[in-house]
């Protein structure tokens, strides 16, 4: 292994493109100066297509969880009834945040590895008209499930007055997202997953319907008060010192996404998902999720009895390749490959062929090369622009 080569393929943080790295090395500028104002002015309209919204997208300095917390404290009041759909570790995080703020949580658990069925939510809301907000996860990073957010938002609005809050941290910028059209009221993402930046920024947008609730919400809040971000962004500024270097990087990321074209970005992720899934199917190593529930940004593969942990050790030691393990009760049972952001089909071939060696070394009876071949065949069967 090369001492300074890191093949970082966990589902975030993800690798940074060299041009973004260079943009971030610019000398720092004053956050209240004209240059920062102009930078925010240029960034502001270009974030909207990623969210699929005409609303402003607010930039908050903090990790993705601070974005989730922003959604909670702005939409809910202590004692409010909210529904949290838990399809994995990140749904569970919404539960913990809401409980910390003394919000009454109705927890709707879905078996890990499967997506929520919106019909179940319909029934729940009919029985519980007191629910004011429904929290959900778009890509559940802990299992590699992409939840059907469009159908979910539709069902919520048909059967209640509740707001729909969506955690899109591990997929906005990599999968189709139509916040306005789908009726998503608050959408959150982060910098270090599909957006090819270091950790440190979170992005939040709110619908008009959500703004009515936010404005009337009298719960105490300060750093995460969305009203402050809105008042400031109107003047092309932020209420507190932003992570200026990350803003330099963000402008370059938006340029890269424009150059490739969002539709192409989405199909690249879809292709990488299909290549990865075909590879493990060919190797006869089971996938955690069904084809229908699979996320284009992260794939979870089942390897029981801590074989996942053994595999992770071998590929890290020999190739510097990092993939993630399972979270909570899935630790030792699965490993997860992040194929998002600065990741190409060529990278996927490298990941697969490297993992094949790892599987051999831990004693899995695989047919060496069959996974790589299946991925190559998927690549060749697609029309690539
Ligand atoms: C990574 C992630 C988060 C936020 O995590 P931070 O570590 O706080 O940045 C939230 N939700 C999902 C779905 C994620 O993948």
UniProtKB/TrEMBL annotation:
Occurrences of domain Aminotransferase class V (ranges): 29-328
Keywords: Aminotransferase, Pyridoxal phosphate, Transferase
Pfam families hit by this protein: Aminotran_5 (PF00266)
Residues binding substrate: 336
A GO biological-process term: glycine biosynthetic process, by transamination of glyoxylate
Superkingdom to which the source organism belongs: Bacteria
UniProt modified residues of type N6-(pyridoxal phosphate)lysine: 193
PROSITE patterns: AA_TRANSFER_CLASS_5 (PS00595)
Segments of this protein annotated with the region Disordered: 1-21
Cofactor: pyridoxal 5'-phosphate
Gene Ontology terms, MF aspect: alanine-glyoxylate transaminase activity; L-serine-pyruvate transaminase activity
Assigned protein family: Belongs to the class-V pyridoxal-phosphate-dependent aminotransferase family.
Entry protein name: Aminotransferase
Lineage of source species: Bacteria, Bacillati, Bacillota, Bacilli, Bacillales
